[in-house]
Amino acid sequence: MAKGKINVAVENIFPLIKRFLYSDHEIFLRELISNATDATLKLKHLSSIGEFKGNLDDVKIEIKIDKKGKKIHIIDEGLGMTKEEVKKYINDIAFSSADEFLEKYKDEKNDSGIIGHFGLGFYSAFMVGREVEIHTKSYKENEDAAHWICDGSPEYTLKKSKKKERGTEIIIHVDEDSLEFLEDQKIRELLLKYNKFMPIPIKFGTKEIADPKHKPKTTKDKEGKETTENQKMITVDDIINNPNPAWTKQPSDLKDEDYNEFYHELYPMQFEEPLFHIHLNVDYPFNLTGILYFPKLTTNIDIQKDKIQLYQNQVFVTDNVEGIVPEFLQMLRGVIDSPDIPLNVSRSYLQADGAVKKIASYITKKVGDKLNSLYKNDREEFEKKWNDIKIVIEYGMLSEPKFFEKAQKFALYPTVNDKYFTFEELKEKTTAAQTDKDGNLVVLYATNVDEQHSFILEAESKGYEVMLLDSPIVSHLIQKLESENEKIKFARVDADSIDKLIQKEENQISKLSDDDQGKLKVFIEEIVPKEKYTVQLEALDSNSNPFIITQPEFMRRMKEMQQTGGGGMMGMGNFPEMYNLVVNTNNDLMQKILKAKVKRSEYINQALDLARLSQNLLQGKELTDFIKRSYELMN
Ligand code: ADP
Ligand code: MG
């Protein structure tokens, strides 16, 4: 038996370990299982090169809880350690790395969540243990098993162990303040969180299942009554993990069903099928595998709940992928697994890291390629999915210039009649009819088919196409498209009268004399509230409505952009609620208004309210009054 002192600069480092990683105590289990996994994989490697001859078919890792003895056991059948190796790897190297780690981060608050991941390794056992033991037996023949004990002071004991089987058993004597880790439920939860896809089977207890070799027999008695024999149950190991998750396989070995099945394995509470998946697989200039899914995004809550999970060699690290995955793709789901992402660093460092930047741009490129191939291979299907995926694509076009370029090929612009155009097609289809006298192509759009119904009809009667652009960030996207395409302007159908939106050379002739127009304007302005409406006389088609309320494109768009944030809109103050009241001088009602003696204000109010009604601007008392007045007019 040998007693020794661990080689450390800081006396009593264990209280420090506890304090620094307070919120992350639970990672001890992941660390120890990672070590057990490494030890098993190393032995498998030795076996593959003929250095080890035993059978490794059923190797597993086992977790046991001894509630009475207040102990947690982590047992592996890996390569084990000799006494010399324990000295070297546990006392010297492991501890010096823990020491270094603490030196480095003792000033930083544990705020990023990621600090501490994969830093402490074996010594994280002391986050929950007052004493830790190792029993280990090397795969090497003629080596004694070793038994290491350390009670949290820098002193340790190293002696012979009676352990017979190859591998390592770690025993944690759980501290009084960490007794929660002796609960089955707690350990199961941690195993499912961190180790659900680790490559070696992890056994935690046993479970009863129906004996697959036994089919219950049904027999009939004399009266024909049926009795079925009881199902025979057998006890089997309860294996927590799936050691071969889909992302570690070759895409050619997987069908769509397999991808969907894996999606539900990742997110057991998700019942919808994903729209499609993207299998990531690179090994140069960095290593990365994974599967991303485009979910059907319905509510904001959905986006927050089930996020992309980051793994390192099948060990769960975090579901906060900020800085690694471009922001617009954080709406997706799935897994990313990379040994090349530096984990024990702060978020700000991560964002500046060159390798991480490459990863982000690789992922962006892959997503762009996949969308492009979906579009090319089955456009009809792509159109069907468009409304469910557009928010991600539009957001990406706004935030990533490279993605914007790529998306030019497949981003779709639907019409109010369910036709889908690419930007090129849109230009082609509309240039002839919708180019105004200054040579600008005016793209007309609606955001709500019901609310803007009469305006859409008006535009369609002129032979114009009306797009349906209804996602919340569309005003930003339009702004971007206009700045990229000099001679293209977007206008919402209700931004002005249709003849004003797309102005042509020929001017419509007004039925009214200049004198009458002047009078009409005065009459209307006397009644219509000035602070809300700017009266604007126009000679429109005599069949067009007498009054039309419009909201200038610029004002409305700025306002929307302010509401959805970004784009330097902050601090510009609130835009007032202002409208134009377009008065159609060619509508017959104008004659009536001009000639009327007593009913003039009634005509004007009624026409104004009808215009407001068609823009959804009439509510409450004003609506009630309007209805009452309308009935009275009928009498
Ligand atoms: P790391 O895993 O990053 O090397 P750790 O502190 O987790 O650091 O472990 C230190 C070393 O101790 C390992 O590299 C390994 O050599 C040895 N070790 C730890 N756990 C085991 C185990 N279960 N079986 C064999 N060796 C182990
Ligand atoms: Mg380790």
CATH architecture of the largest domain: 2-Layer Sandwich
Largest sheet: 9 strands, mixed
**How do the strands of the widest beta sheet line up side by side?**
1-6-5-4-7-3-2-8-11
Categorize the overall geometry: elongated
Ions, cofactors and other ligands present here are: adenosine-5'-diphosphate, magnesium ion
From the alpha carbons, calculate the radius of gyration and give it in angstroms.
36 Å
- What oligomeric state is this? single chain
CATH top level of the largest domain?
Answer: Alpha Beta
Provide the residue-averaged pLDDT. 88
Please sum up the structure shown.
The protein is an alpha+beta fold and 635 residues long.
Give structural notes.
This protein has 635 residues and is of the alpha+beta class. It folds into four domains: 2-204, Histidine kinase-like ATPase, C-terminal domain (Heat Shock Protein 90), CATH 3.30.565.10; 246-384, Ribosomal Protein S5, domain 2; 412-501, Rossmann fold; 514-634, Heat shock protein 90, C-terminal domain (Four Helix Bundle (Hemerythrin (Met), subunit A), Up-down Bundle). It contains 19 helices and 24 strands. The strands form six sheets. The chain has a nine-stranded mixed sheet, covered by helices on one side. It has a five-stranded mixed sheet with strand order 12-13-16-14-15, sandwiched between helices. A three-stranded parallel sheet has the order 20-19-21. A hairpin with a 4-residue loop joins strand 5 (146-150) and strand 6. Mean pLDDT is 88; it is low at 109-118 and 567-571. The structure holds adenosine-5'-diphosphate (ADP) and magnesium ion. Residues 31, 35-36, 39, 76, 78, 80-81, 89-90, 94, 121-122, 168 line the site of adenosine-5'-diphosphate.
